Amino acid sequence: PANPTGTLLNRDELAALSQALKARNGHLVVDEIYHGLTYGVEASSVLEVDDEAFVLNSFSKYFGMTGWRLGWLVAPQDAVADLEKLAQNLYISAPSMAQHAALACFEPQTLEIFEQRRAEFGRRRDFLLPALRELGFGIAVEPEGAFYLYADISAFGGDAFAFCRHFLETEHVAFTPGLDFGRHQAGHHVRFAYTQSLPRLQRADRLQLMVHARQLPSMGLGDAPQHVSDPRFHLASTLQ
């Protein structure tokens, strides 16, 4: 699943990417950090179609170990020796405490908790997606994984940065401007994260949210700025 849209590349699309890279003597590097957090569909791994790909993953998302900074890399055998040299010079090894915590993730009772949480993320998505669309946010695709909604705010007349700043300062609600995720139409997109509990999401005053949004001053919807000087607005996107 992709951040910020929550969309997936299927097996055929991954195979096409792999073939395109091989035709150019390249290697495919894929971040699969949100694997496991899907709803009604299973995510394919690039390793199903390309055993020469580099795959990055982490215990931060599905396993909920954000902050432990523990992950792994699957790499072609002929790259392992050079990667070991990098590891020895950059960090040597992960802390033993984090490694023992990660082992506990694979206990049956722990996996059951993770699956319950995945189902809860699905319920939050199913609530927030129609609620935001009803308020006028344009959400082109239904996310199949991760825990984000990428929304077009063109209906509200303000650019993404001003929109996020407005809600942070007036409603104490934080979400992330699209400029954090690239340039394509980033100036009028924002990312919502459904990382808060469903009761908390349901308590949001949706009518007030809509009214305040429509009162935003028009600041243009041009391209996103190349640099943001104020670090307050590089936000973890979550409803506070």
TrEMBL record:
Sequence ranges assigned to domain Aminotransferase class I/classII large in this UniProt record: 1-187
EC number(s) from the headed UniProt entry: 2.6.1.-
GO molecular function: pyridoxal phosphate binding; transaminase activity
Keyword Transferase: yes
Pfam families in the cross-refs: Aminotran_1_2
Cofactor(s) demanded: pyridoxal 5'-phosphate
Protein name stated in the entry: Aminotransferase
UniProt feature coiled coil, ranges: none
SUPFAM superfamilies: PLP-dependent transferases (SSF53383)
GO terms (BP aspect): amino acid metabolic process
Keywords: Aminotransferase, Pyridoxal phosphate, Transferase
Family: Belongs to the class-I pyridoxal-phosphate-dependent aminotransferase family.
PROSITE patterns registered for this protein in UniProt: AA_TRANSFER_CLASS_1 (PS00105)
Alphabetized InterPro entries for the sequence: Aminotransferase_I/II_large (IPR004839), AspAT/PAT-like (IPR050596), NHTrfase_class1_PyrdxlP-BS (IPR004838), PyrdxlP-dep_Trfase (IPR015424), PyrdxlP-dep_Trfase_major (IPR015421)
Keyword Cell division: no
UniProt cross-references to PANTHER family, sorted A to Z: AMINOTRANSFERASE, ASPARTATE AMINOTRANSFERASE
